[in-house]
């Protein structure tokens, strides 16, 4: 989400006549996009800002964008006085005006819209960094208020784009040669077309039917709002990828309640059953938080059981990190850091074993990959499957397949996180 915000900011500013440079030394203005989802990400920001002191002496100006900017607001000017601009994502529409103020010599410019804004940040000038695969934001902000999460406070309230505008952007991308589109939102399942024309599943299908688009992905889903018609759309439209990322956060209904996730373990597993009943095998991945305040060893055990119940192909697991303003920050953080680390390790080890077995099931299959890059040291081409798995492969031809091209590969070997294969017919 942040990477795509940066692409939109860059495109908008280039359109205004600014030039993008490759390194900080060549820049007059440095805009630093930030994340505050966990404490570690936030600490990184302040460490990095410290480095900018030196560059400031060379006359450069600085702006801080993103969730740390929104969260800390004007406090950033106190902590890092060489910063002249602070803007949250809900104010990016106003960046061109803010830069005019900056050029006029103003050194304390803020764009801190909080939850007030109704606007979405749409621009025709997104500077996408990859010419084959690109993101499109369909919904911004979040109204879910999970007890641990800072996003509803930093990215503002939920606001969807019209499906007409999303489809126009997708068609423009197809015309430019993009073949893969990833629809983005904090919770894509609560997408509400402003014009009332299309549900999320209908929008997904419509993007998948655009001539030239071969792969469509979407992230992130919320189990509370995930509907069966999404699975039906994947069944009906071959370009919709065989992959659903459905964050569970915890396998214990008690902890889910404390987290204010608004679903139970059983509710979640019912959605997983829909996905497993699809006509083609759909790969599933998830996010998990360990050590949420009050998580007992029994609760954690239920999360571990969830791994085998679902058979995920990938898990992003995090230690609970207390975040400012969130309800969970006032709950007694009863799990010591050491215990959190242990639980995380147990979970990652268990998941690795499951993936070792599940990835091995692909050996012998013939799958289509999109070529992403080359590893010349290993003589391999890096590809990605529709299930979003990495497949590194060799070819017999001396001419390497182009990045962004699609080929059939036979899987010959597997690891817990990747597959190995040989290109077919090359
Ligand atoms: N602590 C740890 N992990 C968090 N996430 C969100 N907020 C926190 C937090 N305070 C995780 C969730 C979410 C993912 C993007 O980050 O698992 O799905
Ligand atoms: Fe955060 Fe919950 Fe919204 Fe996801 S759905 S962004 S975890 S508040």
UniProtKB/TrEMBL annotation:
Q: What is its EC number?
A: 2.8.4.3
Which SMART domains does the annotation name?
Answer: Elp3
Where found in the cell? Cytoplasm
Q: Which residues form the TRAM domain?
A: 360-425
Query: What Pfam families does the annotation carry?
Result: Radical_SAM, TRAM, UPF0004
Q: Which reaction does it catalyse?
A: N(6)-dimethylallyladenosine(37) in tRNA + (sulfur carrier)-SH + AH2 + 2 S-adenosyl-L-methionine = 2-methylsulfanyl-N(6)-dimethylallyladenosine(37) in tRNA + (sulfur carrier)-H + 5'-deoxyadenosine + L-methionine + A + S-adenosyl-L-homocysteine + 2 H(+)
Q: Which UniProt keywords apply?
A: 4Fe-4S, Cytoplasm, Iron, Iron-sulfur, Metal-binding, S-adenosyl-L-methionine, Transferase, tRNA processing
Does the record carry Transcription regulation as a key word? no
Which GO MF terms are attached to this record? 4 iron, 4 sulfur cluster binding; metal ion binding; tRNA-2-methylthio-N(6)-dimethylallyladenosine(37) synthase activity
| Domain of life, per lineage | Bacteria
Q: How is the cofactor bound?
A: Binds 2 [4Fe-4S] clusters. One cluster is coordinated with 3 cysteines and an exchangeable S-adenosyl-L-methionine.
What's the top EC group for this one? transferase
Q: Residue limits of the Radical SAM core domain? A: 128-358
Cofactors demanded by this protein = [4Fe-4S] cluster
Q: What is its main location?
A: cytoplasm
Where along this sequence does the record place binding of [4Fe-4S] cluster?
142, 146, 149
The MTTase N-terminal domain is annotated at: 1-104
A cellular component term (GO) from this record?
A: cytosol
Q: What does this protein's UniProt record list under function?
A: Catalyzes the methylthiolation of N6-(dimethylallyl)adenosine (i(6)A), leading to the formation of 2-methylthio-N6-(dimethylallyl)adenosine (ms(2)i(6)A) at position 37 in tRNAs that read codons beginning with uridine.
The record's subunit annotation is:
Monomer.
HAMAP family for the chain: tRNA_metthiotr_MiaB
Family statement drawn from the similarity comment of this UniProt entry: Belongs to the methylthiotransferase family. MiaB subfamily.
Q: What is this protein called?
A: tRNA-2-methylthio-N(6)-dimethylallyladenosine synthase
């Amino acid at each position: 989400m942040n990477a795509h915000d940066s692409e939109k900011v860059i495109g908008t500013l280039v359109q205004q006549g600014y030039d993008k440079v490759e390194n900080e030394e060549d820049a007059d203005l440095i805009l630093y996009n930030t994340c505050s989802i966990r404490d570690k990400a936030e600490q990184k920001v302040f460490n990095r800002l410290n480095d900018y002191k030196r560059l400031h002496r060379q006359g450069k100006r600085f702006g801080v964008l993103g969730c740390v900017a929104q969260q800390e607001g004007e406090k950033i000017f106190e902590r890092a006085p060489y910063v002249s601009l602070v803007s949250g994502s809900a104010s990016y529409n106003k960046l061109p005006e803010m830069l005019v103020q900056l050029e006029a010599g103003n050194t304390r410019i803020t764009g801190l819209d909080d939850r007030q804004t109704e606007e979405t940040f749409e621009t025709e000038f997104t500077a996408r960094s990859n010419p084959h695969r690109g993101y499109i934001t369909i919904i911004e902000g979040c109204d879910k208020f999970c007890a641990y999460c800072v996003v509803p406070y930093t990215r503002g309230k939920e606001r969807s784009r019209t499906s007409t505008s999303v489809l126009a952007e997708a068609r423009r991308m197809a015309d430019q040669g993009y073949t893969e589109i990833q629809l983005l939102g904090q919770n894509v399942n609560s997408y509400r077309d402003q014009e009332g024309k299309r549900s999320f599943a209908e929008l997904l299908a419509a993007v998948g039917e655009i001539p030239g688009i071969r792969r469509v992905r979407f992230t992130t889903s919320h189990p509370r709002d995930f509907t069966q018609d999404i699975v039906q759309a994947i069944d009906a439209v071959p370009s919709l990828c065989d992959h659903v990322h459905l964050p569970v956060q915890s396998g214990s209904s008690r902890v889910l309640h404390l987290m204010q996730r608004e679903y139970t373990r059983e509710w979640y597993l019912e959605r997983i059953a829909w996905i497993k009943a699809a006509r083609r095998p759909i790969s599933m991945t998830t996010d998990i938080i360990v050590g949420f305040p009050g998580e007992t060893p029994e609760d954690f055990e239920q999360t571990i059981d969830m791994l085998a119940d679902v058979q995920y192909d990938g898990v992003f697991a995090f230690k609970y990190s207390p975040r400012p303003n969130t309800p969970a920050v006032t709950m007694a953080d009863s799990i010591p850091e050491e215990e959190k680390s242990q639980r995380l390790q147990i979970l990652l080890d268990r998941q690795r074993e499951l993936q070792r077995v599940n990835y091995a099931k692909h050996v012998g299959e013939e799958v289509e990959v999109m070529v992403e890059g080359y590893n010349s040291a290993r003589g391999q081409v890096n590809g990605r499957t529709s299930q979003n798995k990495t497949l590194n492969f060799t070819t017999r031809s001396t001419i390497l397949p182009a990045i962004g091209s699609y080929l059939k590969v036979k899987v010959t070997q597997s690891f817990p996180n990747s597959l190995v294969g040989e290109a077919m017919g090359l």
